[in-house]
Amino acid sequence: MLGIQCYAIFWLLVSGYALQTLLVHTGPDIDDEERKQWQDEIESMGKFMSGRGIGKMFLLMSMALLMIDGLGFFFTYQYAELRPWQQWAFYFVAAALIVDSLVDFYRMRKLLAANEPDEIAHRMSEYMDVTSVWANLSMFVVGGKCLLAVVLVLWTVFR
C-alpha cells in the first residue's frame, strides 16, 4: 500500500504542475506581449529543429504522461471508494482524456509530416494554439486529473 500512496502523491504533483503550467500559458492574467513572446519561442523551436525530432520528442512525452495518467486512473478506480458524482466525474474525465489524446496525436502526426522550417513553425503554433476549443478540453482534462488525484490521495494516504 505504501507504493500506491507514494504514486498517489506523485500523480497529484504531476497533475498539479500540469494544471499550473496550463493556467500560466492560457490564463486571463497573461498579457498579449507575454503570449506573443511564448508564441515566438515556439515558432523559433520549429525553425531550428526538424519536425520529425520535435514530433518524436512530443510523442515520447505524451506517451509517458498518458502512462502515468492511466496508472493513476487504474489506482483511483481500484482503491478509492468513489461517490456517485465522483464516478461520473471519473468516467467523464477518462473519456475526455481519450479524446484529448487522440486530438493531440493527430496534431503530432501533422507535425511529424512537416519538412520545411516555415511549415514546422506553423504546425508548432497550431499545436500549441491556446485559443482553440481543444485547449478548453485540455484544461478540463487536467483539472479533472487533479481532482481524481486528490481523491486518490485522500483515500490512500489519509484513510
Question: Whole-Å distance between the termini?
Answer: 11 Å
| Mean pLDDT across every amino acid position | 84
Biggest sheet layout = none
Query: Per DSSP, what share of the residues sits in E-state strands of 2 or more residues?
Result: under 5%
What is the helix content?
over 70%
Compressed to H and E, one letter per element, the order equals HHHHHH
Strand-pairing-aware structural class: mainly alpha
- The total beta strand count reads 0
Number of helices: 6
Task: Provide keyphrases for this structure.
single chain, 159 residues, mainly alpha
Describe this structure in words.
By secondary structure, the chain is mostly helical. Helix content is 86%, strand content 0%. It is built from six helices and no strands. The chain has helices at residues 2-26, 32-48, 51-79, 84-113, 117-127, 133-156. The longest helix is centred in the middle third of the chain and has 30 residues, at 84-113. The protein is elongated and about 55 Å long. The termini are close together. The relative contact order is 0.19. The model has no long low-confidence stretch (mean pLDDT 84).
Give the helix/strand layout:
Layout: H1 2-26, H2 32-48, H3 51-79, H4 84-113, H5 117-127, H6 133-156
Short description:
The protein is an all-alpha fold and 159 residues long. The protein has six helices and no strands. The longest helix is centred in the middle third of the chain and has 30 residues, at 84-113.
